[in-house]
């Protein structure tokens, strides 16, 4: 990857904002040893050993004391020299230390810039770099495990494997181009079509796993409709069970009162409670509600909660009428412990999916979970699932289309060769060996500072 950058040292506070026992400043750039020496009053840190030291201001007075770690290039996260200062985790101390680093010639890092340098220095490929952010943002243990798997190269490895096989086939096809007389014979003897089919099957397997990984990352958005006291809050608790939703601080996702995050079987679920979608004069609340309706447009399902002893009322009907028609509906007849009905699948109005359950006794809750996961095509995270993104699925889809076209035109060797080339390019976007610079900018700008 050749995207050039000006290798000035960059620095950032790598630990989360606020107070903590320890705060870490990370510096990356070429030739950081003089900076480390200036910070420590002339000490020379041993590579990859902790050095307990004062961190000094320009006049030689100590700003803080702590550990300095020195990772000379290329054996560091970014592939450049990296220095980490572990000081006391107070915002004022950290700010003073950071200012001192700037004074010594570093500039403040942009979001994701460390990871970007790691990518540009071939320490990570693009899918791995993305998984750094995904690991930090993971909303469930399953998602975190999947992100780590991607970071360690499980996903990239599959893509590399596919690309290698594609290259082998391309070499065969391109060689044929030089002997137009016998081209088709030659391809038949070498079973080019058989190789292509094997590639397509392999791509489909990767696609299936990646799709599961994308669900784990993105989760599903569920709209919750129901009158007061039908048991919405109780149902959310029952669905979440022991899994604690970790609220992450992803840029641009401000949480409003009408949205809740829970985790079901490792899949993050973004629940929009329409009870909160009321008319209001409060400007801020109105903006939140407007945004929520936009989320409703992209939702995966609507859960209509009804007390099993009654039928849905007019207020619920009104909201249902406002929801996009394509949204799959799942009716939930709650409080069956009071109505005496038995738990499990049932039929809702108009033949809609329905589940009878009790949020209180939990009877029937697992059936509802199964219904929800089935709706988005989640079949469970076995050990093999790595985290993937919509961007990856899109690239895989396009590669698949080119292979499909290739299968149809294989007797026109030039077209065949071209489709294989396009398939390879699409796959290479995933690992970043064929990715436009502007896309790189977008990907890295979504990181947090210090990563
Ligand atoms: P929400 O207003 O729709 O969020 O309803 P809540 O979850 O706050 O529940 C309203 C009341 O119904 C509470 O007293 C709950 O304990 C009760 N409740 C909820 N689900 C059940 C259930 O399945 N069985 C019984 N017996 N009570 C329930
Ligand atoms: Zn409630």
From TrEMBL:
It is found in: Cytoplasm. GTP binds at residues 229-234, 248-254, 273-276, 358-360. One of its GO terms (cellular component) is cytosol. Pfam families: MMR_HSR1, MnmE_helical, TrmE_N. Mg(2+) binds at residues 233, 254. Residues 219-377 form the TrmE-type G domain. (6S)-5-formyl-5,6,7,8-tetrahydrofolate binds at residues 26, 84, 123, 451. Its EC number is 3.6.-.-. Binds 1 potassium ion per subunit. One of its GO terms (biological process) is tRNA methylation. K(+) binds at residues 229, 248, 250, 253. This is tRNA modification GTPase MnmE. InterPro entries: G_TrmE, GTP-bd, GTP-bd_TrmE_N, GTPase_MnmE, MnmE_dom2, MnmE_helical, P-loop_NTPase, Small_GTP-bd. Exhibits a very high intrinsic GTPase hydrolysis rate. Involved in the addition of a carboxymethylaminomethyl (cmnm) group at the wobble position (U34) of certain tRNAs, forming tRNA-cmnm(5)s(2)U34. Its cofactor is K(+). GO terms for molecular function: GTP binding; GTPase activity; metal ion binding.
């Amino acid at each position: 990857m050749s995207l050039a950058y000006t290798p000035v040292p960059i620095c950032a506070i790598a630990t989360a904002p606020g107070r903590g026992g320890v705060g870490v400043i990370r510096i990356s750039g070429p030739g950081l040893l003089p900076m480390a020496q200036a910070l420590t009053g002339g000490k020379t840190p041993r590579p990859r050993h902790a050095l307990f030291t004062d961190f000094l201001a320009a006049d030689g007075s100590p700003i803080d004391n702590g550990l300095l770690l020195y990772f000379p290039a290329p054996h560091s996260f970014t592939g450049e020299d990296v220095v980490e200062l572990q000081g006391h985790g107070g915002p004022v101390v950290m700010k003073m230390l950071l200012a001192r680093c700037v004074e010594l010639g570093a500039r403040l890092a942009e979001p994701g810039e460390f990871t970007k340098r790691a990518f540009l220095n071939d320490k990570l490929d693009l899918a791995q770099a993305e998984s750094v952010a995904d690991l930090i943002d993971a909303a469930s243990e399953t998602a975190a495990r999947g992100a780590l798997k991607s970071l360690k190269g499980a996903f990239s490895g599959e893509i590399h494997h596919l690309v290698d096989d594609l290259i082998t086939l391309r070499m065969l096809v391109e060689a044929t181009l030089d002997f137009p007389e016998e081209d088709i014979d030659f391809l038949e003897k070498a079973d080019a079509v058989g190789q292509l089919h094997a590639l397509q099957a392999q791509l489909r397997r990767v696609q299936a796993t990646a799709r599961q990984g994308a669900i784990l990352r993105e989760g599903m958005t569920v709209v919750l409709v129901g009158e007061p006291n039908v048991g919405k809050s109780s149902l959310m608790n029952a669905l979440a069970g022991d899994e604690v939703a970790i609220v992450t601080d992803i840029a641009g996702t401000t949480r409003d009162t009408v949205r809740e995050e829970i985790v079901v079987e490792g899949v993050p679920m973004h629940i929009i409670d329409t009870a909160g979608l009321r008319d209001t004069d409060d400007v801020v609340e109105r903006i939140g509600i407007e945004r929520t309706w936009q989320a409703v447009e992209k939702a995966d399902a609507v859960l209509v909660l009804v007390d099993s002893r009654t039928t849905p009322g007019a207020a619920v009907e009104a909201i249902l009428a406002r929801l996009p028609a394509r949204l799959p509906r799942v009716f939930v007849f709650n409080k069956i412990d009071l109505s005496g009905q038995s738990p499990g699948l049932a039929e809702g109005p108009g033949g809609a999916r329905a589940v009878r359950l009790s949020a209180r006794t939990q009877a029937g809750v697992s059936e509802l979970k199964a219904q929800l996961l089935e709706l988005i095509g989640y079949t469970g995270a076995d050990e093999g699932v790595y985290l993937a993104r919509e961007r990856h699925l899109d690239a895989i889809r396009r590669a698949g289309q080119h292979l499909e076209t290739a299968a149809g035109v294989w007797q026109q060797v030039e077209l065949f060769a071209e489709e294989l080339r396009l398939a390879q390019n699409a796959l290479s976007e995933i690992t970043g060996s064929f990715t436009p610079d502007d896309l790189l900018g977008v990907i890295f700008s979504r990181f947090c500072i210090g990563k």
